[in-house]
Amino acid sequence: MPVNIPEVEQKRIVVIGGGFAGLELTKRLASTDHQIVLVDKNNYHQFQPLFYQVAMAGLEPSSIIFPFRKLFRKYKNVFVRMAEVTEVNTATKQIFTSYGFIKYDYLVIAIGANTNFFGNEKIAEHAIPMKSVAEALFLRNEILSDYENSLTIREFDTRQEFIDIVIVGGGPTGVEVAGALAEMKQYIIPREYRELAAHEIDIHLIQSSDQLLKGMSNKSANAALKYLTALGVKVKLNTRVVDYDGKVVTMNDGSKISTRKLIWAAGITGNRLTGLPNEVLVSGNRLKVNRFNQVEGLEDVYAIGDIAYMEEKGYEKGHPQVAQVALQQAKHLAKNFRQRLKNKPMQAFSYKDKGSMATIGRNKAVVDLPRTSFHGAFAWYIWLVVHLFAIIGTKNKVFVFLNWMWNYITYDQSLRLIIRPFLKGKS
After folding, report:
1. 379-402 core/surface letters (b: 16 or more CB in 10 A; e: else)
2. Do 87 and 202 belong together in one domain?
3. For the chain, is the Cβ count within 10 Å smaller at the N or the C terminus?
4. pLDDT above 60 (res 427)
């Protein structure tokens, strides 16, 4: 059964995924002579770079999400459908969803990536990922619940399982989570959990390579390591986590850490979409595209963002899976769709690296720009401004700014609430 979408003379572009790439493309095509259908399993966009602040009780979830329908309510040619895409048929130009099928003239796949556990099912079962607001809230509940439970435990080793935390992955997410936890240990625990000795809390950051923030400069990596060490984070480089049973983390060097919380930020892999030929898949489940973001060998099918694998000079192994690539590809593809409307040739995409950054804590951040890198308080201010302006919605910007200001002035937040989902039939 077809999904209820008006049939019009305009060419229909179906966009799967409302992340950075899919949303940016839809926004830029909303005023063109196309019918745009945005399909996502959620009815809102999630600002992924600040998931960790939701998990650390620094921001309300509503501050970093924005409903699609509110964003596109002025555009009569944009249709939003909340559905799971189960399959695509490129021969008939249809996608199949949990509510029926949708025909397309052009298909844009922007389904992003998910947590990569590298085939370790045991770790996948017990570790806590952080690729959605729901997972960030789950992590917040786990951290706060375990702090509450630890106050009732006298036995030292058992208590350590509740309060010690292991983070796997020394990229921006892992570094930012570790820094936020260290600041919670320093500023919040002594005031709100007075019976708990803050010095007993151990925060471990495990990185498989020889430096943090792989892909950033050595200067930034070393500064991040220095900041985390000063905050009391126990950083372990050149070490892989090979097993976790929900209570004990085992490393490849044989060492073990007892903990009830293993936060997994060690890598991503592309989401899978049934119906696409295997030959378009490359390492990490990404879809191989040409310089116009067309999936190789498929007519009128495009891929952008984390799921797209494009080779160009300087990026022979594909572009980094970061927001800037997604946004630039979306803007460029929208321009090419407008070119097609004018019967003009499409232009090849070239990525322009605008730099990268990560924050470790108050007045502690690292920034790499194409020609320079710096760290410290100024880098932290830059990080704040860049992320604040990237958030969608004026109200969200204001709320995030006020939360940050209050937290900076008071060293406190009032969002440490344990809110569990209601299960029907259970009290």
Report:
1. bbebbbeebeeebbbeebeebbee
2. no
3. C
4. no
